[in-house]
Write a structure and sequence with these properties.
The protein is α+β, with helices and mostly antiparallel strands and about 200 residues long. The protein is built from two helices and eleven strands; from the N terminus they run βββββββββααββ. The chain folds into two domains: about 120 residues, no CATH class; about 40 residues. About 15% of the residues lie in helices and about 35% in strands. It comes from Illadopsis cleaveri. It is found in: Membrane.
Length: about 200
């Protein structure tokens, strides 16, 4: 696949050539296409060659990536093919890159397989937070399992209430006659009727 810039000023002689291949994989039971190499040609002369890594998708899909670049800050999906050629002098970055080499229908891209890796920063943060929550939950369950019952250590050992029976003779000693208004009344000398043992 060759991209030509036509008559755009200094880019008139620049061509970007993408080498795509398709292969059948038995594990997925379908054809996949891959971008193997990217070449920069200027005035029909190869200026730089980059090997592509990780740019592949099922043949019925397209491939999409926010950045396809030779720079490390964009994960460097394009790697110079050799340290001796001029690839080291070039910096290539495609923004909002989407490609489909085969099975193109009506000039539109098929469903895109995105290049976002499984362990993106957002997914890693989610995994770390999930791990922390699981540890807190495990610690809480551990504490609940080893919680000791208070009933075994603080059983009520009190005996039933006991009221001492008072004899009539005792009551006689306890009573002191009151003389007022002609009625016979008694006042207890000792105000304690009984004792409660707990």
């Amino acid at each position: 696949l060759s991209l030509k810039f036509g008559d755009i000023g200094n880019l008139k002689g620049l061509v970007i050539r993408l080498l795509l291949t398709t292969s059948y994989y038995q594990l997925s039971v379908q054809n996949w296409f891959s971008l193997h190499r990217l070449q920069l040609l200027y005035n029909h002369s190869v200026q730089a060659t980059f090997n592509a890594t990780g740019i592949h998708a099922p043949a019925t899909y397209s491939f999409h990536c926010e950045h396809v670049s030779s720079l490390q800050r964009y994960d460097a999906l394009l790697v110079p093919s050799s340290a001796n050629d001029l690839s080291q002098l070039w910096e290539v970055t495609f923004i909002d890159f989407q490609i489909q080499g085969f099975n193109v229908q009506e000039g539109h891209f098929a469903y895109a397989r995105d290049c976002a890796s499984f362990f993106s920063p957002a997914i890693l943060m989610g995994l770390v937070m999930s791990l922390i929550l699981l540890l807190v939950l495990a610690y809480a369950l551990h504490m609940l399992i080893h919680l000791k019952s208070l009933d075994r250590h603080y059983e009520c050992k009190a005996s039933p209430a006991y009221f001492a029976q008072m004899k009539d003779s005792d009551m006689g000693d306890e009573k002191e006659p009151l003389r007022n208004s002609g009625n016979e009344s008694y006042e207890l000398r000792n105000q304690q009727f009984g004792k409660i043992y707990i």
